[in-house]
Amino acid sequence: MKFAPTSILVTGGAGFIGSNFIHSFIADNRDCKITNLDILTYAGNLANLKSVERHPGYRFAKGDICDATLVAELLAAERIDAVINFAAESHVDRSILSPEIFVRTNLLGTQVLLEESRKHWKSGAVKDFRFLQVSTDEVYGSLGETGFFTEDMPLAPNSPYSATKAGADLLVRAYHETYGMHTLNTRCSNNYGPYHFPEKLIPLVISNIIERKTLPLYGDGLNIRDWLHVRDHAAALKLALENASSGAVYNVGGNNEWRNVEIVNLICDMMDERLGRKPGESRSLIRLVSDRPGHDRRYAIDSSRIRSELGWKPEYMFEKGIAETVEWYLEHREWVAEVTSGAYRDYYAVQYGENR
Predict the structure, then answer these.
(1) Which residues contact 66 (CB under 8 A, 6 or more apart)?
(2) Fewer beta carbons within 10 Å, N or C terminal of the chain?
(3) 126 is a domain residue
């Protein structure tokens, strides 16, 4: 039977994937309330949600998912019947420098959310309850030249970031197996699209080309990633929340593999044409740099389970999606400038009258 949530707690909703999910979900489910809990780290940007902040069913709460008291209060006050956990430290490079931050947010934070959700569910405050953990294909480790990640593969993370995400996935599984809680887990490939913080490959390349800055490329540039449009990801999450059986795990990928150097070259050529620059001008900015420790060589996802069981399929062809993404960043240069400078952090103070 299809689950129809009435009040959702979205954690990390001011980030890239979380904000895109909120936009998509509100458009399709106007009768469902959304509470967005976000601590607003450097990658959390309330300006991503300007168009929905006045929506009567939307509420923002600033706070930490590790704060059990706050989480419990929100679950009870808003009569939450579904939690979708996007909240995470997500940049691999940062996890190598400061792994303890990733352990706290990604692992401990998930445990707090699970435990307070379990108490809320067991209290009988809501008739039905679901917990959806949004994870990553990086928990599987690295692939060789062939093959795909499937949901039944063992987890073999290679970075502090992916290790904390894998640990969180196992906690979600444990709450299903031990307590009978209705949990779901999705593992996605690399997302791209609007509102992506420009430390990640695609928005970094776009913003650096605009400013004629160097385009750093790790190692030999031949690492392979599977790219998924963030709005296709949002659609998959909605389908899973509404239709998946308890304990289900789904891989969500675009079946769209690109070597890093290939995608950088593609964006360079598109930007040269769009900005009226000489062909090859942006490619001249590419510089190979020392490889990242533990840099996984290839990711590729088998999404056949979610396709066959839930009927999901990506709507965005990559050529169309990447062209729209480039255009979005060119049309939102003020947003990029604010995010890069950190000025967007003042938006919270202006909107909510708080000092930061």
Answers:
(1) 104, 105, 108, 109, 112
(2) N
(3) yes
DSSP bridge pairs for 258: 225
Catalytic center residues: 137-138, 161
- 115: tokens are 């435990």
Q: Residue 355: inside a domain, yes or no?
A: no
Q: Which amino acid is at 25?
A: F
Residue 108 belongs to what domain range?
7-196+227-256+295-316
Give the C-alpha distances (Å, rounded to integers) separating 99 from 105, 171, 197, 331, 349. Answer: 10, 19, 20, 35, 29
- The percent of residues above 70 in pLDDT, for the chain, comes to 96
pLDDT tens digit string along 276-333? 999 999 999 999 999 988 898 999 999 999 999 999 999 999 989 999 999 999 999 8
Is the distance from CB of 168 to CB of 135 less than 8 angstroms?
yes
Three-state SS at 137 = helix
Checking if the pLDDT of 348 tops 60, the result is no
Burial 213-223 (b: 16+ CB within 10 A, else e): eebbbbeebeb
Q: DSSP secondary-structure letter at 146?
A: S
Q: What is the pTM of this model?
A: 0.92
* 189 domain-assigned: yes
> Do the Cβ atoms of 72 and 63 come closer than 8 Å?
no
Q: Cα–Cα distance between 347 and 343 in angstroms, integer?
A: 8
What residues form DSSP beta bridges with 259? 224
**Cβ atoms of 329 and 336 closer than 8 Å:** yes
Q: Which residues pair with 226 in a beta bridge?
A: 257
Phi, psi of 38 (to 5 degrees): -150, 135
The Cα–Cα gap between 131 and 122 comes to: 13
Tell me whether residue 63 is in a domain.
yes
The residue with tokens 């923002």 is 60
Token couple for 328? 């979005």
- Here the CATH number for the domain that contains residue 71 is 3.40.50.720
Q: Confidence class of residue 257 from pLDDT cuts 50, 70 and 90?
A: very high
As for how many domains the chain has, the answer is 1
Q: Which position has the token pair 């970031």?
A: 161
Q: Rounded to the nearest 10 degrees, how much is the dihedral formed by the CA atoms of 141, 144, 145, 147?
A: -70
